[in-house]
Design a protein that fits this description.
This protein is of the alpha/beta class and 362 residues long. The chain folds into two domains: 2-162 and 350-360, Rossmann fold (3-Layer(aba) Sandwich), CATH 3.40.50; 166-345, Glycogen Phosphorylase B (Rossmann fold). It is 40% helix and 17% strand. It has helices spanning 43-64, 85-91, 106-110, 117-131, 145-148, 166-169, 196-208, 224-234, 250-256, 276-283, 295-303, 314-322, 328-345, 348-360, and strands at 2-3, 21-25, 28-33, 70-75, 95-100, 136-139, 156-158, 182-187, 213-218, 239-243, 259-263, 288-291, 306-309. The protein has a six-stranded parallel sheet, sandwiched between helices. It has a four-stranded parallel sheet with strand order 4-5-6-7, with helices on both faces. It has a three-stranded mixed sheet with strand order 1-3-2. Strand 6, helix 5 (145-148) and strand 7 form a beta-alpha-beta unit. The two termini are 24 Å apart.
């Protein structure tokens, strides 16, 4: 059960009509509810979308509950997406499970909702009631456990996310680079959370100091215009802003790159996250330049996957780019460690097997 697809463009995808419908994927029946549009332009509409999705799925749950045994919630957005658990668990006594990939109420404030004493109290009260409906709770990042524990008194299990194109990307790890100069690449959303302005400023300083390399930025988002201004004003040809590219082309960018960048602004919430791109970079056996603090920074340092620096220090960022120059043996070691770490911690088979074991158990 989900909604008519519209994210992140805030418009209905081609081939869909914004009405309740049923379609199929590999024989799986998908129940879709209407999407409330306008969330990119209005905070009020964003909140309205959260509430309406909760209502539409709550209503549909009454029809679905009679013919199911267990309910699994893949929580990647607003916590209200799991509101139908009120029906499945409270009324029909079905076993319910949730895999939390996003932390509320912290995340909702990052989306632009103003934090007040009343809003915080209401959201935390709602979350305590919501989590009581679940027989088991899983989280995608270890740092989430301490927060979710404030709403859920039983065991919380960490099960990591995998990279969706794992089978194709894992082959890239075996390829050798033929680049004459280093290719640094960032893939993904260009938002304020990604702190890419500082990444560009640090790279430009390194170029001014003599660095001969290319920085590729692949993606789109609210920071795109600002980044373009920085690049245009610098008159450099060493930063390439590729824009949004289809998922089918991501492997090509991974293959051409020597070092992959994962960056986040210095924020207590963001410091807990493990961005999905991180798994993709490791899967491809790439050295990581981590321009961030927190969980991912610790993983990079402890497992020698690359270099990590403070996201707020332009000087450190500049030197981090330079630290890869002429260090072929070091890069080879980082590549090896990245592949090993992915296979030990993020393989799709292991995470799915872990989920199934926990859901099929008591």
């Amino acid at each position: 059960m989900t909604q008519i697809p519209s994210y992140p463009f805030d418009k209905i995808y081609d081939g869909y009509t914004n009405i309740d419908t049923i379609d199929y994927y590999k024989g799986i029946k998908i129940h879709r509810v209407k999407t409330f549009l306008g969330y990119n332009k209005s905070t009020v509409k964003k909140i309205g979308g959260y509430l309406l999705f909760a209502f539409f799925t709550w209503k549909k749950a009454f029809n679905l509950a009679k013919n199911i045994d267990k309910v699994f919630f893949y929580h990647t957005g607003p916590a209200t997406m799991a509101h139908s658990s009120m029906v499945f668990k409270k009324i029909y006594k079905k076993k319910c499970y949730i895999w939390t990939q996003d932390i509320w109420p912290d995340a909702i404030y990052a989306y632009g909702i103003k934090k007040t004493f009343l809003s915080n109290l209401l959201l935390k009260t709602y979350l305590k009631k919501l989590y009581k409906n679940f027989d088991k709770v899983f989280v995608s990042c270890p740092g989430f456990i301490s927060i979710v524990k404030t709403y859920y008194s039983r065991e919380i299990k960490y099960i990591p996310q995998w990279y969706p194109l794992e089978n194709d990307v894992i082959k890239i790890a075996k390829l050798k680079s033929s680049n004459e100069k280093l290719q640094f690449t960032f893939l993904g959303n260009l938002g304020t959370a990604q702190n890419l302005e500082n990444v560009c400023l640090g790279f430009l300083k390194a170029v001014d100091d003599g660095l001969d390399a290319t920085l590729n930025i692949v993606g789109d988002g609210v920071s795109y215009t600002k980044l373009k201004q920085i690049i245009d004003n610098s008159k450099t040809d060493k930063i390439i802003l590729w824009g949004r590219k289809p998922q089918s082309e991501m492997n090509s960018f991974l293959e051409m790159s020597d070092v992959m960048i994962v960056s986040l602004a210095d924020d207590p919430l963001l410091n807990m996250y493990i961005p999905a791109k991180f798994q993709g970079y490791l899967c491809a056996g790439k050295p990581i330049l981590g321009i961030l603090n927190g969980e991912v920074s610790k993983i990079i340092k402890i497992n020698s996957l690359g270099v990590t620096v403070s996201p707020s220090n332009i000087e450190e960022i500049s030197k981090s780019f330079e630290s890869f120059v002429g260090k072929k043996d070091r890069i080879i070691e980082f590549r090896k460690n990245s592949s090993i770490f992915y296979e030990k911690n993020y393989l799709k088979f292991n995470s799915i097997a872990n989920l199934i074991t926990n859901i099929q158990g008591k």
